[in-house]
Amino acid sequence: MLDVKDKEQIKEIVREMLREDDQEKKLSLIERIVRVEEGIKNLSEQIKLIIDTTNKRFDDVNKRFDDVNKRFDRQTWLITAGFAFLSILLTLITIFVK
To answer: Which of 53, 55, 59, 98 has the fewest CB atoms within 10 Å distance of its CB?
Structure first.
């Protein structure tokens, strides 16, 4: 049969093993937290890159729309000037023909 001294030694060994197990669980949890934080940081960087790329694409499309708008303005001005010229020419022709 076990005496009191042996029981105390067994209790101390069990306590020590439980403390070590708790420490291992804490370290494992800390390692997981670090991995999750690194993953979040990586995802954040990827999202920022995607947003920057998307913003650049929108800027490019906006520039193209501005260029097309300038072309339409130029064409409108030329068409208006052409009609004005033709109107003046027709008016002058009708005046000089009489």
So the answer is: 98
How far is residue 23's CA from residue 16's CA, in Å, rounded to a whole number? 10
Listed in sequence order, the DSSP H helices in the chain are 4-97
Phi, psi of 88 (to 5 degrees): -65, -45
- Residue 54 corresponds to which tokens in the numbers above? 């998307």
- At residue 2, what are phi and psi to the nearest 5 degrees? -85, 140
CA torsion sign for 70, 71, 72, 77 is: positive
Q: Can you tell me the distance from the alpha carbon of 93 to that of 60, in angstroms, rounded to the nearest whole number?
A: 49
| pTM of the predicted structure, to 2 decimals | 0.55
Alpha-carbon distance of 7 to 13, in angstroms, equals: 10
Side chain identity at 48, as an amino acid letter? K
Domain residue extents for the chain: 1-70
The span from the CA of 85 to the CA of 70, in Å, is 22
Model pLDDT, residue 25: 76
